[in-house]
TrEMBL record:
PANTHER family: ABC TRANSPORTER PERMEASE PROTEIN YPHD-RELATED-RELATED, AUTOINDUCER 2 IMPORT SYSTEM PERMEASE PROTEIN LSRC. Keywords: Cell inner membrane, Cell membrane, Membrane, Transmembrane, Transmembrane helix, Transport. The lineage of its organism: Bacteria, Bacillati, Actinomycetota, Actinomycetes, Micromonosporales. Pfam families: BPD_transp_2. This is Autoinducer 2 import system permease protein LsrC. The complex is composed of two ATP-binding proteins (LsrA), two transmembrane proteins (LsrC and LsrD) and a solute-binding protein (LsrB). It comes from Actinoplanes couchii. It is a multi-pass membrane protein. The chain crosses the membrane at residues 20-40, 60-80, 100-119, 131-150, 170-192, 204-222, 228-252, 273-292, 304-323.
């Protein structure tokens, strides 16, 4: 076997390993189980275009939050305030739209989110307060601001522009979908020809094949809400930025070893602060879209959403310690959570069991990622043998 063939074979094996593609396997298995169960019970097809579109629409906003939560986690921090920030931004948008118009309302909401993110970044990176404490505090404080503004009441805007935007649908023409699919597949092939690995181009292959199959066999799936298209656009742009740009490589370096990154000339504080600001701004966008769906907000809007977002990122294999994570897998993690919820509803299973199952899935996923990590396996074996864990230098070389 030639060196190139051996390299390709090894790349394929790494790409299909449980740690690399485990969340995809779990998602496929979950959908298969729900499809078979629905069929056995004589219910409508679980894989119908209508049901799949509903899952995408229900998960789109949380998936958008999970994308940029993953960015923050990769940088070595995390943010518990995203749901409260989204709620505040939605409140600001609905409070200002009638008096100043939709453009000013949206801009005010986005600026509000960016300021909350900047506050988090400054307190964590410049003042040196622990990210958990800071974002837990802003979660509580921002939620309190929402309650103070609304005075315990829900509000509704007379201007329905946000509602028109948030509930709008767009159907991608089949020809456009086929062209995009061919371009994605061609781009993946070109990158491999230029020395790229299968693992590094897996997202392009998967996206191209999925889009081509949808265009040929499920054209109805090309008709989605604006929220879904925004989610897909953001995940593609963010994934490409993290994978193929200096910014992305620096961000992984900052999260993986901040001291080494600093010695290499990378401005660690700037990268981490920008991650917070982006997260806050995107949370504000989600808040505007959420408020627009109902043209109304109340003091409890999106309460607890931050836990769902973090759970989605963890399901996608993102490390809570920084330097590791993929936004596409975080989106798949979000789909798993909402597919579970949708499956319970379709199969008429009591809601009392949903949290139990979702929590079990989350713990199982975290355990799987830990067990399949080479470094964690060595630590576990050392602990079981009551031996000293491998030295940091050995971990770096491995």
């Amino acid at each position: 076997m030639s060196t190139t063939s051996a390299h390709d074979h090894g790349s394929w094996r790494r790409s299909l390993a449980p740690r690399a593609a485990g969340v995809v396997y779990a998602f496929v298995a979950l959908v298969a189980i729900l499809t078979i169960t629905s069929s056995v019970q004589g219910r409508p097809s679980y894989l119908s275009s209508v049901n799949l579109s509903n899952i995408l629409d229900q998960s789109a906003l949380i998936a958008i939050l999970a994308i940029f939560m993953t960015v923050v986690l990769i940088s070595g921090n995390f943010d518990l305030s995203v749901a409260s920030t989204a709620a505040l931004a939605g409140t600001v948008a609905l409070k200002t739209i009638d008096g100043y118009g939709p453009v000013v309302a949206i801009l005010a909401a986005l600026v509000t989110g960016a300021l909350v993110g900047l506050l988090n970044g400054v307190l964590v990176q410049k003042v040196g307060v622990n990210a958990f404490i800071v974002t837990l505090g802003t979660l509580t404080a921002v939620r309190g601001v929402v309650q103070a503004i609304l005075d315990g009441q829900s509000i509704t805007a007379a201007d329905s522009t946000l509602m028109d935007v948030a509930t709008a649908r767009w159907a991608m023409p089949i020809v456009v979908a086929v062209i995009l699919a061919v371009l994605l597949l061609a781009g993946a092939g070109l990158l491999i020809k230029r020395g790229g690995s299968v693992r590094s181009t897996a997202g392009l292959w998967a996206s191209g094949l999925a889009l081509l199959l949808l265009a040929l066999f499920r054209p109805l799936m090309l008709d989605q809400t604006i929220s879904v298209w925004i989610m897909l656009l953001l995940v593609v742009l963010t994934a490409l930025t993290l994978r193929y740009t200096v910014i992305g490589r620096n961000l992984y370096a900052v999260g993986g070893n901040p001291e080494a990154a600093r010695l290499s000339g990378i401005d660690v504080d700037r990268y981490r602060m920008v991650a917070f600001v982006l997260n806050g701004t995107v949370a504000a966008l989600v808040g505007v879209l959420y408020a627009g769906r109902f043209n109304s907000v109340d003091p409890t809007v999106l309460t607890g959403g931050e836990l769902t977002v973090i759970a989605a990122a963890v399901l996608g294999g993102t490390s809570l310690f920084g330097g590791s994570g993929f936004v596409t897998k975080s989106v798949v993690g979000t789909l798993i959570l909402f597919t579970l919820s949708n499956g319970f509803n379709v199969l008429n299973i009591g809601s009392n069991y949903q949290n139990v199952v979702q929590g079990t899935v989350l713990v199982a996923a975290a355990s799987l990622y830990t067990a399949t990590s080479g470094r964690e396996r060595r630590k576990l074996r050392a602990a079981l043998k009551k031996e000293k864990p491998p030295a940091p230098a050995e971990l770096v070389r491995s």
